[in-house]
Amino acid sequence: MNATLYVFEKTISTPLWNYTYEDEWFTSLAISGDGNYIAAGYNLYNNKKIAYFSYYNSTPLWENSDIESLSIAISYDGKSFVIGGKNLYLFQNISSPRLQAYTSGYTYRDVSITPNGNYIAAASSKGIFIFDEFLSQPVWGSSEDADAFSVEISNDGKYACGSYNTYLVPAEENSVIIYISLDHPNLDFDLALKIILLSIGTCGIIVDSVLITVGYLKKKKIDRLCEKQIFGS
């Protein structure tokens, strides 16, 4: 089976171009907010690859065959993108590529980046972390040693939200939603808004300045969407 990336315009049924990896398939994909850049990766059977494209050309602007990718997120202008896997990577500056890595021994399952590329949110096997653009050390981290699966930054870049699983009730899995302001990312963990959702599993999250929408698992299936208003709109 081959992995093929197809790029379309929304009003045209024929692809503008396609790009194929032989004997693989894609496991992560992201498009910049301005629509001009695409990042795609696969990570399967010890084969790894990241490719970064202009929307207008099937020849990659940059490739790497050493990075595991479970999740990719791109800044609005496409000049920065973050890769989550066994390590956390930040790629910057298309004209003079620079790749930074943060190694902690954790697995980063989900990542998000602000539109301007100044902050990164990562959901890891040891909690939720916020990094700045230098990716040296987290500027904020959840204080609970918990398995995190989902993270999202609002479109205006002001808020980050993530979910992790915990056992607040013995032998019963629960999810905790963390919501913080990126205007003050080094705030104390206990000041972050925490929403406890009892008896549910892993969450998928959409967040904006006033509302969190959560898709969650209950009884081993997607049960419903719930919404939590954060502040008055």
Attribute tags:
Methylamine Dehydrogenase, Chain H, 4-stranded antiparallel sheet, mainly beta, about 230 residues, single chain, disordered C terminus
Computed structural class: mainly beta
Which of globular, elongated, flat, extended, rod-shaped describes the shape? globular
Oligomer: single chain
Task: State the strand order across the main sheet.
Answer: 3-4-5-6
Percent strand: over 45%
What's the total helix number?
0
Secondary structure: number of strands: 21
Textual characterization of the structure:
This protein has a single domain (21-229), classed as YVTN repeat-like/Quinoprotein amine dehydrogenase (Methylamine Dehydrogenase, Chain H, 7 Propeller), CATH 2.130.10.10. The chain is 0% helix and 55% strand. The chain has no helices and 21 strands. The protein has a 4-stranded antiparallel sheet with strand order 3-4-5-6, with no helix packed on it. The termini are far apart.
Structure summary:
The chain has 233 residues and is an all-beta fold.
SSE topology sketch:
Layout: E1 3-7, E2 17-21, E3 28-31, E4 37-44, E5 47-54, E6 62-64, E7 71-74, E8 80-84, E9 88-92, E10 98-102, E11 108-113, E12 119-124, E13 127-132, E14 140-141, E15 147-153, E16 159-169, E17 172-181, E18 193-197, E19 203-207, E20 211-218, E21 221-229
Antiparallel strand pairs: 1-2, 3-4, 4-5, 5-6, 7-8, 8-9, 9-10, 11-12, 12-13, 13-14, 15-16, 16-17, 17-18, 19-20, 20-21
